[in-house]
Design a protein that fits this description.
lyase, 6-stranded mixed beta sheet, oxidoreductase, 8-stranded mixed beta sheet, 17 strands, NAD, lipid metabolism, 3-OHacyl-CoA_DH_NAD-bd, alpha/beta
């Protein structure tokens, strides 16, 4: 099968491809249903290296189909994956090297040429989805006549929009016709843009992606029995008719939500919606050609490279944190103490109990607060039970693990104690001094401070070397980032223990130097400060708040202020002003907002609150939206440059990882430093040319 078209050779782009081989064997179906040619997709590695498709893998599958096509002795053709994995899509490392549109076009056409044959054989084809099926892997299954799926499949998805692409090998055309436009838009657009959400096998079956579902233990055997019954006419597969669905309204509604969220910043989901709408009337040739054109356009853009850069950070760098000590130095944690029983502390207690499965004890100043904190944990456990996320036994065990105490004596046998009290240095130093009196010399003392000096906090202790920053983001269970802060005296054993606990909590940890507000809060405070400063100078609040909509940020600066709370934002601004008075101001208007007890500038219906807006007075030098945008971005570039010079993190990639995971910086922008490079804001560049962008 050719890998060239019009002279556009793509083989060289995939020199490092781990080829997924398509091995064919004949299987005698039960009940005398005949012989099935069963194709197994396998790249030769275990499930930790899933099967993907580059030119080699597509060619191998094409050759397997050549071998079975026209065989008069076959009743059917089947496709199955290696253990735990069906297939997970295209080999994107090679795709990121595309430099000519004809090469990009060929990648789309080659996939279509191979996959469509599964739906155009002389005999029925069956996909037996035994494991993870994502991207092109799911598209392989969609091309088949029938599909079964294992109830144990952990991930079914079309994640392409998450990376700046569209499902380009049939997904946008076949899936809407199979399960309807509304469900297809959810899988193709909404889930990828919601932290790249995956669905499991049972949900995929419920949506109609598969025609039958079987348990993992005997999945292939039962699938073959079911296929035999279909071939014999004993089982009839009926599918819903979606021709009467309101495709136009579904697409229009989805486009409206995209506009609200992205403001046109990311082209891929918009192209995907156009393709879904086209699927209602297009022939197979027309639809597949449109996918080829969209894929070629997007492969030639920066967004794919940016998305792959982000993906690499999240999947690789986050799992091997730069600067983390040897894992062997980590101490075992068999009990956790949490100082405080407020919302943040209670969230942490639940997370520690769920992930570490060790006793967790909360302390606070009075019984009412303590009861409220422990009660919160128990109520959240009940919610997990109601959703089927934990069993009744697990729920009872979790509740038993989390207890409260009015005295810190309960920490005597704890190995890890974290404080989550008011953000005040005197309060935190007092807490640590009290804790140190009752815990062992090896017990790690962690602080969840968002901006205060760890070194100063530990300075009065007998063992300052066991104090470490452990900065969660709210909500604790959802936000994946954990900033682990090394103080001036923090030793390697303490740091290694902190990273070990972070891994057990399933967080992505980044090592950060003890510097004011660390990474995320430092950058967000500078960013928000510039926008608020523009309003203080006379820029209409709505103009300033929407000046950066074109980036597709998860929320506007003043919406973020509402989420954080003006009082907290003011406190952090004051802390940063004390550290860096030339770059961080303290807004008198923000102080008035806090004094007035306003939760922000927005009313509950998300309209601007006139009373709150009226508090921003006194400015006579308004800026345009473009001036506000440049001001905020230049400030970010300056602050990042200074942070790198100060050694707050080891490299720009760590800042990007923090902003993606802790601040929701859009995945499609590839992190903040590549975006500033591409936009010409960073001079000199933070990263080499071609990183997270089309090669020059």
């Amino acid at each position: 099968m050719s890998t060239t078209t019009g002279g556009a050779d793509i083989t060289g782009l995939f020199a490092d491809e781990v080829v997924t081989r398509a091995a064919v064997r004949d299987v005698e179906l039960p009940f005398g249903a005949g012989v099935m040619a069963l194709i197994t997709l396998d790249n030769g590695f275990d499930h930790t290296k899933p099967s993907t498709f580059g030119p080699g893998g597509l060619t191998s599958l094409g050759e397997a189909l050549d071998a079975v096509a026209g065989r008069g002795d076959l009743a059917a053709v089947g496709v199955v994956g290696k253990p735990f994995v069906f297939a997970v899509g295209a080999d994107l490392k090679g795709a990121a090297l595309v430099s000519e549109r004809e090469q990009a076009l060929r990648i789309g056409k080659l996939g279509h040429d191979v996959f469509r044959r599964l739906g155009e054989l002389d005999v029925p084809s069956f996909a037996f989805v035994n494991g993870a099926a994502m991207g092109g892997g799911l598209e392989v299954a969609l091309h088949c006549t029938y599909r079964t799926i294992s109830s144990g499949v952990p991930a079914v998805a079309l994640p392409e929009c998450f990376l700046g692409l569209v499902p380009g090998w049939g997904g946008t055309q076949l899936l809407p016709r199979l399960i309807g436009p509304a469900a297809a838009v959810k899988l193709i657009v909404e889930n990828p843009l919601s932290q790249n959400r995956m669905i499991k096998g049972r949900e995929a079956f419920a949506l109609g992606v598969a025609d039958a579902m079987f348990e993992p233990a005997d999945f292939l055997e039962e699938s073959l029995r079911w296929a035999a019954q279909v071939l014999r006419g004993e089982v009839t597969v009926s599918r819903a008719d979606h021709t009467g669905d309101d495709w136009a309204k579904t697409v229009a509604d989805a486009r409206f939500l995209l506009d609200m969220r992205l403001h046109g910043a990311s082209p891929a989901p918009y192209r995907a919606l156009e393709l879904v709408e086209l699927a209602r009337t297009a022939s197979r040739d027309e639809g597949f050609d449109a996918e080829d054109q969209a894929l070629a356009d997007l492969l030639m853009g920066d967004e794919l490279r940016a998305g792959l850069y982000s993906f690499d950070l999240v999947q690789r760098r986050a799992k091997k944190p730069a600067g983390a000590p040897d894992k062997a130095l980590a101490r075992k944690v068999t009990k956790v103490g949490v100082v405080g029983a407020g919302l943040m502390a209670s969230q942490m207690a639940l997370l520690f109990a769920r992930r570490l499965e060790v006793p967790v004890v909360l302390t606070d100043l009075d019984q009412d607060r303590l009861d409220k904190g422990v009660g919160y944990v128990h109520a959240e456990v009940d919610k997990l039970l109601g959703k089927g996320r934990v069993s009744a036994d697990q729920a009872n065990r979790l509740k038993a693990l989390v207890t409260g105490s009015l005295t810190k004596d309960a920490f005597a046998d704890a190995d890890f104690v974290i404080e989550a009290v008011f953000e005040d240095m005197k309060v935190k130093r007092k807490v640590f001094a009290e804790v140190e009196e009752v815990v062992s010399a090896e017990c790690v003392l962690a602080t969840n401070t968002s901006s205060l000096s760890l070194t100063e906090m530990a300075s009065g202790l007998r063992h300052p070397e066991r104090v470490v920053g452990f900065h969660f983001f709210n909500p604790v269970a959802v936000m994946p980032l954990l900033e682990i802060v090394r103080g001036a005296r923090t030793d390697d054993a303490t740091l290694a223990t902190a990273f070990s606990v972070g891994r057990s909590l399933k967080k992505s940890s980044v090592l950060v130097k003890d510097a004011p507000a660390f990474v995320v809060n430092r950058l967000l405070t500078r960013f928000m400060g510039e926008v608020i400063g523009a309003v203080d100078e006379g820029t209409p609040l709505e103009v300033a708040d929407h000046a950066l909509d074109g980036l597709g940020l998860p929320m506007t600066p003043f919406a973020l202020l509402q989420l954080v709370g003006p009082a907290v934002a003011l406190h952090v601004a004051e802390t940063m002003h004390e550290a860096f008075p030339a770059r961080y101001g303290v807004s008198e208007n923000l102080a008035r907002l806090v004094a007035a007890g306003k939760p922000g500038v927005y009313a509950p219906d998300f309209s601007l609150d006139p009373e709150a807006v009226a508090l921003f007075t006194g400015g006579t030098s308004p800026s345009t939206a473009e001036e506000v945008r440049l001001r905020a971005l230049r400030a970010l570039a300056e602050e990042i440059r200074l942070m790198l010079q100060e050694g707050v993190v080891s490299a720009p990639q760590d800042i990007d990882l923090c902003m993606i995971l802790g601040a929701g910086w859009p995945f499609h922008l590839g992190g903040v430093t590549p975006y500033l490079d591409r936009a010409g804001i960073a001079e000199p560049r933070f990263l080499p040319p071609g990183v997270a962008s089309v090669p020059a």
